[in-house]
Amino acid sequence: MFHSRFNQVLAIAVWLFCCGAVAAVLVSGLGKSAEYLPLIAFGAFLAWAGLWRPAVGVADDAVTIVNVFSTVVVPWTALIQVETRYALTLVTPGGRYTATAAPAPGRLATALSRREMGRVESQTGGVGTMRPGDLPTTDSGAAAYLVRQRWEKLVAEERIELGVADSTPATRRWHWAVIAMSAALLVAAMVSLALG
């Protein structure tokens, strides 16, 4: 599974901040500032759901994209293109599926990586210009490399049936528990702050 290192570092920073906030609430006395605890719990949960948990999994049968509120499974037979313009995006005849775990670099990172970009072989064998999001030092580029490498290997081994992309659907599974917990913690935080 591919996870964004930057997002995971950010999640740890949020959790450390939340721990400090809980310590501050305990030091000041639960009676005086307990209304902040649901808000802190909401922030810690969002750090897990939105930063730590998202991932891209590459297996011999499909690519799995775990996002905040859903998981999408894209079979290799449905995949027609891999893009990295804004984030790792898997394109099928039935839709486009973006991985929040693999965002493209921002402007600063793009400016810093310009010297790394050059002429590269495109997936079709022609020569093209590398996008900043394709650089293996970026989250989108590292994830795209894993996907493209496995895809090329499976095609070379003739393990992907060709011509069935239109009839092969990607599947989406909603994370109802994460959605419900996010909503419950948000409501609890709003009610607690309003009553506090």
Automatic annotation (TrEMBL):
The chain crosses the membrane at residues 33-51, 63-82, 174-195. Keywords: Membrane, Transmembrane, Transmembrane helix. The keyword tRNA-binding does not apply. It holds the Pfam family bPH_6. The keyword Chaperone does not apply. Residues 53-102 form the Low molecular weight protein antigen 6 PH domain. This is Low molecular weight protein antigen 6 PH domain-containing protein. It comes from Leifsonella bigeumensis.
